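U., I forgot to send this yesterday:
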Amino acid sequence: MAPGEPGDTGCHVLHVDMDAFYASVEIRDRPELAGLPVIVGATGSRGVVLSASYPARRFGVTSAMPVTRARRLCPQATFVGPRHDLYAAVSREVMAIFRAVTPQVEPLSLDEAFLDVSGAIRRLGQPARIAGLIRATIAEQQGITCSVGVASCKFVAKLASARCKPDGLCVVPAGEVLSFLHPLPVAALWGVGEQTGQALARLGLRTVGDIARIPAGTLQRELGQAAGTHLAALAWGRDERPVVTTAPDKSVGAEETFASDVDDPELIRRELLRLSGRTARALRRSGAVARTVVVKLRLANFTTITRSRTLPEPTDVARRIYATACALYEGSGLDSRARLRLVGVRASGLAPAAGAASQLAFWERARSWREAERAMDRIAGRFGTDTVRPAALVLAPGDDPLEPPRVPPGEPGGEAAAPPAGAGPAS
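Result:
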């Protein structure tokens, strides 16, 4: 590593792994269980452990262990039946956090994924900083923790995240991969199970460094051509597999956790305005328009409410997204003073903007606002994202109360109306 060179230079791959995922979600919803052994699994005598908190793991409890054995090892544990729908919902929100950082996300399961952040470095900073942002966002928005490994390839990043559990961050600089790998036991390598481990032991190979030092031909003769070549490459930290995104983005959006719970509708609408702008810019950057606007409202107790509306014409205009988001917020059924922890705005039902141009032209006012916002994009691209923004986001809260906008013409309840105060572009 050259003097002054960041230790994470070239480390564009992250492996993010949630800590004791199912158990952590249960503890989040039942804070009185914090710090205690908690085991999630079928409560009958024939079930298996799905997740165990770290205090339970200190008693030897592991995933896939029969519940009866877990009870013998840790009789004082709290046993909880699984809530799979809840875990899937939390997983979707965690994956959305990842995709807000980079579209290059490869989920491995509900609770872990690889990310390639090379395209996000200019926007968000070095990989280690991005990893820290991800950890902080998950803690703030979901109330649970994760561990992140940062490395130059997937294999090393996954080992690094395991090394720093729970609630940790481990960076393996590109120039220190071998010093990280070689002391590890051979079982750390992907593909080394019980049978392969016994074959390596017969060769006197106990560590990854031992495998690296033995001729590749010897490994190939003992283990077969494919397995021998595979282990030899891993022992030298070579893993050429890219992060593979298996599906295109189906939606784009943004969300924000307040520093403290908010019950002021004016402040909530201001945040909806900010998030609508971010969502619209993301649509325009990707060359897409959206048919549906979704608002997410998370209460102080982590209860989450979502509301959505399908628009008459697809849009990438912040003003339309904001108008719809405010209407959804006001029609959410929440008490006007409900305390919110988080708000989010998401646009779904995406289509290429070029194919929707004729539909956009039917609403001339939308088209004029679209042109104005594209001009704002060009200014922001040259001078920075905060150079130009709606007036309501420039003034301090309370200086110019932001009235909820009326629904655009053509939408349910809509009428021809003047723009809402502060919702237009301002330089």
